[in-house]
Design brief:
One of its GO terms (biological process) is carotenoid biosynthetic process. By secondary structure, the chain is mainly alpha-helical. 73% of the residues lie in helices and 5% in strands. The chain has one domain. Helix 3 packs antiparallel against helix 6 and helix 3 packs across helix 7. The N and C termini lie far apart (49 Å).
Length: 232
Amino acid sequence: MTYLEFHLLFLLPPLLALLLWSRPRPPRVWAYLLLPLIALLYTTPWDNYLVWRGVWGYPEGRVLLRLWYVPLEEYLFFLLQPLLTGALLLRLAGSPPPPGPGVFRVLGGGAWLLVTALGVLLLALGGKALYLGLILAYFAPVFVLQWAFGGDLLWAWRRPLLLGVALPTLYLWFADSWAIREGIWWIAEAYTLGPKAFGLPLEEMTFFLFTNLAVVQGLLLAWHPEALRRLR
């Protein structure tokens, strides 16, 4: 199976089904469509660096073409994943709740700041800690900003936050594990710590957890009127 066929099997059918189920309507559609573009721009340099370092890669014959170090299908993935996760969240997120206690802005921002520091430490260690360090150091600062800005809003919206992250993450863990077994892409053991679940490295599990977390938290903040008032 090729990487493009992976999209046709694992991403496009559930995405179309979720869009039909959720029936997205204004005003939430603008953020839903804008976020994949932001995700693509943010992840492109990070992803190219990982492939250049040999943290992960793609066998010949499994991809159509490469732009810099990354295949075209990978860029499509960074557009399709936020659309898939966001389509489910469109259904899960009800009316915006009142803000929670403001202390969650401090607690959440502080906790993610510690995760960022851990990521920097792992980067300094390098070797088998490199992949996990790259994930934590690159994505945790986004969560610092999200929680420092609207941790009270995210806490108040915690049910769709938890479900909106957990369900697509579990599904993508299964799809990723299948793709690795099929040889569509590979993960270098030299840059991973070793623990696995169902054949999936800890780092890959963290990657999908963090990217879905970024999508869900970003959309919930964009959809909350209080967040828009704070921006003004």
